[in-house]
Design brief:
alpha+beta; 5-stranded antiparallel sheet; 13 strands; about 45% helix; about 25% strand
Length: about 400
């Protein structure tokens, strides 16, 4: 008593508890007396006392009425449980805090037995799976797990049971009551009792279906884009100022170099013939400096073995992951250029033949015109001669008649 309350024997003996003012709540004293009078004893009554220094002490009090030297006395035994109460209060507060977090969490949460049966679930998990709490509690996790994902996380849970780890993270699919499927990101931890034996698992579950569906859609889109690019009949490229970032197989085929050679050893303008390289450098500079957004031009290409190559280039300036890059397409127009050159030569030959033929025709036309003039002159003279002869005939007839 001296140690707990701080009073000495001299300060205590002969004084009542009221006089000492050790009761924090006098109602506790009245409760004690009432039970004592009724039963003759009181066991484990929890009350609060005030020590000599004013410290509040929680005591677990047991009291009984006894006969002491033919006098009725009260024997009171009190254990100081202040520290235990503080711990219990903290435990209660922690449990209340956990319960609040558990119930109000934006993530689905549940506690399961070591065997995997649901002990308790929060409302968020119920909403995720379209079940009520009553429907979920008591069932095994496997009954709501997608059949193809039953083994996901099994090894991790086993490692937690064996004490190799205290928490694990994994993703798997679950079945909704409506029949739908959701993807869930799971954080799981194993809680142990005071003897370090596994007690139950706690799961925090986040619905990641939109992310997974988005990832799958993106992957599908990327696969389609990759198939389109890789199977394209057009060379496709992406480069920074001094090096290529990407080229497709058709680009490599056009210039005769391997992908590794282009990406590791060649500058963007190295695929252009020396005689057109200055033009290519200027076009790259204009785009990177923002003078123009895109260009379209024809140049001689630099084929690895030196065979003739003409290319038509489309290029556009843009940003990828914050970097200034040039991306575009390359068409092999060598056959077209050869055909154009052949057509040009044929046109020149035709023009020359036309000129020769025209000269020949002009000479013949001139001769024809000359001959025409001769014939026209002859015809006129013949007419004049006929007229003269007619006149002579008429004159001769007149003289004869006379």
């Amino acid at each position: 008593f001296e140690k707990i309350m701080g009073y000495t024997q001299e300060e205590t003996i002969g004084k009542s508890s009221i006089k000492l003012n050790i009761w924090k709540n006098h109602a506790d004293r009245e409760k004690l007396l009432k039970k004592l009078k009724k039963n003759g004893f009181v066991e484990n009554l929890e009350v609060e006392f005030v020590s000599k220094k004013g410290k509040i002490i929680t005591g677990l009090m047991s009291t009984s009425m006894i006969d002491l030297n033919n006098e009725i006395a009260i024997l009171s035994i009190t254990r100081d449980i202040t520290e235990r109460k503080i711990i219990e209060t903290k435990i209660i507060e922690n449990e209340e805090r956990f319960r609040t977090i558990f119930e109000q969490s934006a993530s689905g949460m549940c506690l399961t037995s070591i065997e995997g049966k649901l002990i308790t679930v929060n409302s968020t998990l119920c909403e995720m799976l379209s079940y009520s709490k009553e429907e979920l509690i008591g069932i095994h996790f496997n009954s709501i797990t997608h059949p193809h994902d039953l083994m996901i996380g099994a090894d991790a849970v086993k490692e937690m049971k064996q004490g190799k780890t205290n928490k694990v993270v994994f993703e798997k699919r679950y079945l909704k009551k409506s029949g739908g499927i959701i993807w869930v990101h799971i954080n799981s931890a194993l809680l142990r009792n005071e003897h370090n034996n596994p007690k139950y698992f706690i799961f925090q579950m986040e619905d990641i279906t939109p992310r997974i569906e988005g990832d799958l859609a993106l992957k599908s889109s990327e696969n389609k884009f990759k198939a389109l690019v890789e199977q394209s009949l057009t060379g496709i490229y992406i480069f920074e100022k001094d090096n290529f970032i990407y080229v497709n197989s058709r680009f490599c085929e056009i210039f005769g170099y391997s992908e590794n050679e282009i990406l590791t050893r060649m500058k963007p303008t190295d695929v252009i013939s020396i005689e057109d390289r200055e033009k290519a450098d200027e076009n790259v500079k204009k785009r990177l400096e923002g003078e123009v957004q895109s260009v379209h031009y024809v140049a001689k290409g630099n084929y690895k073995t030196g065979k003739p190559l003409w290319v038509e280039i489309h290029g556009t300036h843009l940003k990828i992951e914050g970097k200034d890059v040039i991306t575009g397409t390359v068409l092999d127009i060598t056959d077209r250029k050869i055909a154009e050159e052949e057509i040009r030569k044929l046109n020149e030959e035709l023009e020359e033949k036309v000129k020769v033929r025209t000269n020949e025709l002009e000479i013949k036309i001139t001769e024809i015109q000359r001959m025409n003039k001769l014939f026209v002159g002859r015809e006129l003279r013949m007419k004049e001669l006929k007229v003269k002869m007619k006149e002579l005939e008429n004159s001769f007839k007149d003289k004869t008649n006379n």
